[in-house]
Amino acid sequence: MQSRSVRVLFTLIPGAGHLSAVAPLARALQDSGHEVRVATAASFGGAVQAVGLTPVATGADWAGTPPTEDFARQSSIEQLRWLTGFTSGPQAAGLVELAGSWTPDLMVRDNLDFGAWAAAEELNLPVAVFGVTDTMPAPVAQLLLGDVLASLRSERGLAPDPELTSLTGDAYLDRTPPALANPYLAADTRRWAIRPEVYARRSDVMAPGWLDDLGGRPLVYVTLGTVVNRLLPVFRTIAEALEGRDIDVVMTTGDPAAVETLRPLPANVRTAAYIPQDAVLAKASGVVCHAGRGTVYGALGAGVPLCLLPLGTDQPLVAAACARAGAAVVCATTTTQIGPMAAPLTVPADLTAQMVSAAVDSMLAGGDLHRRTREIAAEIAAMPAAAEVAERLPELAGARRA
Prior knowledge:
Largest sheet: 7 strands, parallel
Strand content: 15-25%
Number of strands: 15
Distance between the termini: 25 Å
Order of helices and strands: EHEHEHHEHEHEEEHEHEHEHEHEEEHHH
Radius of gyration: 21 Å
Shape: globular
Helix content: 25-40%
Structural class: alpha/beta
Strand order of the largest sheet: 3-2-1-4-5-6-7
């Protein structure tokens, strides 16, 4: 029996990777007859509409602000602290104001949207946290963000919560394949598995015709996602590493201007600003990427092996998980300490074409890496799809309401 119709408010960090991760669930709820809104930065509203969802402008409009050269040079921890401090206060205020005119029954918040964490407590709303990035154990969050989050709670008039007991909400939607699970996370009955699908269909962008002509020899897909893709020297290093080899290279930059800036490129390298990921993965023999979750989970779900260059944010954690699982070749130049973990990190200035070339050789060689990739693809296929989670999620609605 279908549950009653409820109002579900999604909150979203304004980034393409975050939107593509949550859109399948939001669409599934909407298609089931529930009323769905997506609260995010005003300038990101067009991207939300493009995937068939209704945006509501809230918080600081910072879309496109963080990925500056200074931001890219900061450590993952500094980036996260900046993001939290800059966005959480305005987002909390905006969400509380929104609830005065459109009262949600349930909030599904981006796990990096700490303003939504505070707002949900003010509004006494049930919350499902969507794990777009790596799940952060409470002790690690205390260490890295404790002072920032304490200030947020004080500003919003909330009682202190030094143990951060409410960070995982009433349910935590975890799209991490079991093989890549964080060993520092304790078992939690509130954790719901959800298959790492992406909603990446864009009616205005089709796969280029030349992609159909490739496939006679191994094809390596190169992408740096939607945030660190401004690091053009990394693209050039990868192109140099793969020049003249008996492979085809498809490189997407995320930016039409970057396509022109990178030219001339080796004869075996084709570039485009954007190609639907599933179209490239269907032909790919391997993927070279930044260890962003969308790309990593997409490749593993398609059974395609990976060469990872973790460049920032939570990418070192993803790369570390893939290395533990034997699911990728990690081309790192150093390590970075994130809480209790030493994780691999690629510093662009230290990356050489020889390093990338050797890593790609290992990626394409087959053996245990390819076997583990196929095993993880089967794990992902067995995880509950967004439509299944959408059937269960409305049960949380109203749980805290008097």
